[in-house]
Amino acid sequence: MAAPADDSSSEEETPEEESEEDTETLERPLRRRTRAHSDAPPAAQLKPLRWRRIRGDPLAAQEEEPVQRRARHDFPPTEGVEPARRRKIQTDVPPAQQEEEGAESSAQGRSTDQQHPPSELQGGYWLVRIVLLRAIALIYCVAFWVAFFQNTQLFGEKGLLPCKLHLENIKRYFGGKINMDSISYAPTILWFLPWSCMDCSLNGIAFFGFVIAAFILITGMANMVFMTLLWIFYLSLINVGQIWYAFGSDTLLLETGFLGIFLCPLWTLSPLPEHTQPSRIVIWGFLWLIFRLMFGAGLNKLAGDPCWRDLTCMDYHYETQMLPTPVSYYLHQMPSSFHTAQVLISLAFELAVPFFLVMGRRMRIFHGVLQIGFQVAQSLSGNLGFMNWLTIVPSIACFDDASIGLLFPSSDGATKDQVHQLESRKAVEPTPRKTTGFNLRACVNIGLGVLIAYLSIPLLQNRLMSPQASKSIFSPLRIVNTYSTFSRITKVRTEIVLQGTSWRNHDDPGAVWEEYEFRCKPGDLKRSPCVLSPFHYRLDWLMWYAALQTYEQNEWVIHLAGKLLAAGNRTSPLLQTNPFLGKNPPRWIRGEQFIYKFSQIGGKHAKDGRWWNRKRIGPYFPPVSISGLKTFFKDRSWPHPPEP
Question: Cβ distance 523 to 324 under 8 Å?
Fold first, then answer.
């Protein structure tokens, strides 16, 4: 029975360079180990252990563990042992091949880590949240920029419709006090700011709103505090802006911004707040918004102007819309069959495409692509302010991280890579314990969903009870609203042209009348239509609406004439050309009304450089002087302009 022990010891390979002392050190524990197993044949000793090791049998580990412990105990860490063992292992594989295989395996590991299949991001909204918040911040930037440069001239202390006078009238109506009734009627922080410098307050709100929005846009970092401040600032401007902020785009910005508040963590400023996962309730709030916006617009069209039903609205739209673009000029010249197809496409986008939202992930993504393309096309054919760009924002919620990830780089440490790591940790780690903050956040999100559902009930009732174009239901906070775009199409474009003269007698046939040019609205026949979107000239828009009515319904037009009679330096920033700037102001100003029509491509007027042809209808308001407006201004509590 000792022969196997001698054979096993003789099979142990010892390098020639090894000393006799090292050899003796190696052989001594081997003899002890052999004597411990001398009663059993070699096959009975080795095969069961080897079989158990292959199959991971725990008994194998239990049987080997004492042997290994004894071996380690009897095997002192001498200098001869470790080099011998290392050299024996390396004899099986050449060192160069080992290094090559190690480098290859590490490279494969890195490439595997970097290969994140898009399916891992399906159903996630981390990247979508970043895009949504930056898109909302972009629109806020534009809106506050417009406010900073136009508000004081429109409704500042000496504006066309002073907001201080508006607040005083509200205060007087509710008993002459600033109480909850007056605040709830017109929620604005201007109630709590000094009225001695209303222009300072208006500019301050616009300035800080722009700064916060620009920070979010550039960094992609936002929290509920910043988003709430933006919403409060813009709400404060809308509720004192009167007709200057009576557009659907302003209300839509408030509703969109309100939803954006609940996309963010409370305090954390991080693009990827790990403990505040994007709420699906908020995402579906955006989807409900884009559905109401588009489907409601389609219903209003069918229930509104008959030209939508007989497919002729686009024959007039490009020429008669508020502020056309150069593209509008060429689209207007297209044949009627082209315009008929456009009406059908528009109605399909507004009445059929919104139902893609409930047809699964792929159709929802397809809906987002279609709506974004539709809004971009509309923005090219008309200056609608930031309305088209704002409509794109809720359409972003149609995507998920897998579909929108193409917008983000895939390099290590980039945002998309961080999202992959975050999702990987969530998949491996156990479900975290639900903390008080987690439960509170869930309650807030559920409360948001209940609030939106509750406020949507009157909108649905309004749709069902009245087949006509429904009126917008504007609550003071503008959280949930109805929208209507182009439910009525004007068939003829009329424009108000303001003219001034320095002649003493305005009835003199030889009097020379010079025209004021606005920033964007048609005036000079040879001036091309402007390209403005997403910027917004509010005065130009209101001049279009005023031309559809009388000056008695738009008294601010007379106020504008009075400002221009008093040198007009304060109002001049709202105009493109003031013919009396730097000279003596005019003695008289009048409003003339014209019909404007696009010139024909290749026609006589177009060859002369004209974009427009016009025909005079008659006076919009008679010639007025600054002295003759004293009573008019006094009756409306407007400050009378100083006489030049």
Answer: no
